[in-house]
Amino acid sequence: MIESLLASLQALKSTPEFAVGLTLVAFQVALLFYRKSKIVLLQPVIVAVTMVITVLLLLDVPYSDYQVAAEPVAFLIGPATIALAVPLYSQLRRIRQLFGPILITLLCGGSLTVILSVLFCWLLGGSEMLQMSLAPRSVTMPIAILVSDSLGGSMSLTAAFVMITGVFGAALAPWLLKLARVTEPAARGLSYGINAHAIGTVRALEESEECGAFSALGMSLFGVSLALLLPLLL
Amino acid sequence: MPVNGLTWLVVLQLLGALLQQWLLPTLPGPIIGLLLLFIWLLFYGRLPKSLEAAASPLLQYLPLLLVVPCVGLMNNLDTLQSQWLVIAGSLFGAMLITIPLSGWLMQWLIRRQQQKRGRHD
User: Fold this and answer.
1) Residue A95 class from Cβ within 10 Å (0-12 exposed, 13-18 middle, 19+ buried)?
2) Which positions 63-122 of A are in contact with B (Cβ < 8 Å)?
3) Closest CA relative to residue B13, chosen from A198, A146, A157
């Protein structure tokens, strides 16, 4: 009886209902966990991914099987990435007068995050694949993984680096900005957005609405300009 | 289900993929779609309700959608384990410099602009 149940489960583990169901349930549990604990390190994505990987390893399902079966969920990343044009448009309309400072900071700060990540990785002896996976790490994840893929990096490594950047960037930024005596909400916000994408924006919103708006703007503008320029330059 | 807005997004994705195949092999298809939508919004001058109805739930649940590519990390666990020092060094080294520097630069530029404006008044 139990043996035939296990056999049935084995037969199901490469189906969409298993892969999609597992992903949805893991995310709901992770979301609940995050809301209860309020620990930044326990981002829903991190907890959900850990749970899914654990289940797949236990049931001996290779990633390629899960990836094919979970395509109904993953497909929507495309439309969602295109939908990022909506917040970019709304943000740009709001902020017109600081356009010059924003553009200069974005250009300098943004290129610096890319150059320094690649440079440090190269100095420490990291492979070219690792360098290319690190290059787009400070933009929002859907854009970062697309850019990483077109540069010859690993999408999933980049996804992990994006998460680490967001979590630790948002945790370190208040302290680092204080150290540099940055008090202007617009300046703090832009730094959050360029260096810690969505997680930084949540943190910026806790400081003030202006700080949050500039963070959201920095994140959207940086993401799109990196996607446009990096594949051409590297 | 906001199907109207979703239809536009999927059509834009198809268009992006087509343009990538045809003319712009270095740019990812969805990024071309994003740009097309952004340019269209600039010309149109406002945000259609149907588009917003599709965009906001998609963006809200983006972390859920991203779980699937993130799980690919299970194939890279050995890289993380053997290269963690290189990774941590590059990530934190860059972060410690760029976070204060970009904030400082923006603040300096804002104050310079304010001073210029003050002189003109």
Assistant:
1) middle
2) 63, 66-67, 70, 73-74, 76-90, 98, 100-102, 104-105, 108-109, 112-113, 116-118, 120-121
3) A146
Using the structure block, give the residue that is written with the tokens 């969602």.
Answer: A80
In this structure, are B63 and B84 located in the same domain?
no
For helices A85-94 and B29-44, give the axis angle rounded to 10 degrees. 40
**Is there a domain that residue A80 lies in?**
no
* Residues in CB range of A203: below 8 A, 6 or more apart: A40, A170, A173, A174, A192, A196
Domain count, chain A: 2
> How far is the CA of B46 from the CAs of A11, B52, B58, in angstroms?
50, 11, 20
Distance CA A218, CA A222 (A): 6
- Same domain flag for B37 and B60: yes
| A18-71 confidence digits (pLDDT tens) | 999 999 999 999 999 999 998 877 888 889 999 999 999 999 999 999 999 999
- Domain membership of residue A52 as a residue range: 2-75
Show the tokens assigned to A190: 């832009």
- Is the complex ipTM higher than 0.85? yes
CA nearest neighbour of A186 among A224, A221, A212: A212
